[in-house]
Amino acid sequence: MRLNQKLFWKLVKLLVFVNNPKHYVSQQRKLRVLQRSVSRKQKGGSNRKKAVRLLSKQHERVANQRDDFLHKLSYTIIKENDKICIEKLNIKGLSGGFLAKSVHDAGWGIFFNMLCYKAEKAGNRKIVKVDPKGTSQRCNKCGNVVKKALSVRWHDCPVC
């Protein structure tokens, strides 16, 4: 099957996936070493204060990297799209379980807030929050529901 080049680039633009850079996970070894250094120092000592300062600087660096990435990503999304649909996720519920570190590292809540205020600032941009229940099983054209396993990532509607 051959695709018209114009159509191909529209599809590519619609299907852009952004990988999570995992700022915290990539800096975890350094943070672990600094935390160990703090725990080995005597409480109240000047060397401990220096170690605590280094540890907090490293945590701040991770937070700044995450904020920078999220600001750039939200700016790009707002600039290129008039209508943005995001899932109305229970981030608090997700961040308390098995995926806690990954959810916090990705910064979903901060990202959604950034999208909302940047869309409001841009003026004519619209943010739609969608209930995530059944979104991967319901066809967006005809509304037909096709049950599938969690491992299946693409929707193929038999009716359409």
From TrEMBL:
GO terms for molecular function: DNA binding. It holds the Pfam family OrfB_IS605. The keyword DNA-binding applies. InterPro entries: Cas12f1-like_TNB, Transposase. Residues 108-160 form the Cas12f1-like TNB domain. Keywords: DNA recombination, DNA-binding, Transposition. Residues 16-95 form the Probable transposase IS891/IS1136/IS1341 domain. GO terms for biological process: DNA recombination; transposition. In the C-terminal section; belongs to the transposase 35 family. This is Transposase. It comes from marine sediment metagenome.
